[in-house]
Amino acid sequence: YPSIAGSEIKAASLDYQRVYNEIAKLLEDEDYDDGSYGPILVRLAWHASGTFDRASGNGGSGGATMRYQEANHGANAGLQVARNLLEPIKKKFPDITYADLWTLAGVVAIQEMGGPTILWRPGRSDDKPESDRPPEGRLPDASKDENHIRQVFTRMGFNDQEAVALIGAHALGRCHPDRSGFEGPWTFSPIVFTNDYFVKLLEEKWVPRKWSGPHQFADEGSKSLMMLPTDMALIKDATYKKFVELYAKDAAKFSSDFAAAFAKLLELGNHFDPQSSPLAFKPSAE
Ligand code: CCH
User: Which of 60, 63, 65, 132 has its CA 20 to 30 A from that of 104?
Assistant: First the structure.
């Protein structure tokens, strides 16, 4: 910006609470899945960010690289629904970067579904050289085991407790046969943020589902809930199981640990203005 009388003129900064409110208005749709786009917006924010590799510094939400070839990575099947939903917001607020928009939408979704306040900072750039775009295979593979989960989350820079807290997001949403091949929700309240994923993991008896689809588990009681092989790994591995037990018992601890880990996830690989302090948004119900 030009300098007038020695002082820099800064562009008026976007009112991100307004952007938050506009995204919040898009969530409910009784004809879509369980009645909300919230879960798929959480998945978009996570898949945009979870490609980060601490060793090389590449991947992560910056660059919004899922606009390119990454959209076709198998793990991202179905996420065009979430990206397309947000397009009118980008038109209305052209100054927000896609990288900020997709991560902010994850924050809106968590908070509007009754989850904790997630501190969020703007400032992700949409520019990233093609050479820094993440290769396919960075996101976890649901058919694998605890060693795979540990390797993937450690690569991002998360410890075991943070990994378990983050995967607790599976209280939300469901698997779609035409996206991942898996089918069904993890809980009976898939559009409300709860610690029920952990409760169900421990309380239900999980049996292999007999079907022609990929290997997954069903609760023996109702047969209407599901767990992925990687979900079951969290109660097979003794260290992970400790945290599953903690979060099943203490919903408030889960909420606050999730909030911290999710905020960290959305920032991985980005460089923020050291002066910028994180924003806390007001849920639209208040
Ligand atoms: Fe996940 N997730 N996720 N997940 N995920 C799927 C759906 C959701 C794995 C696999 C899958 C996290 C970690 C993991 C959500 C949030 C998070 C699906 C079904 C698979 C498969 C996709 C479909 O068919 O639509 C694996 C493996 C791991 C790690 O081990 C983390 C971390 C988060 C967020 C913090 C959400 C939300 C969904 C529901 C999406 C929807 O459309 O309902």
Answer: 132
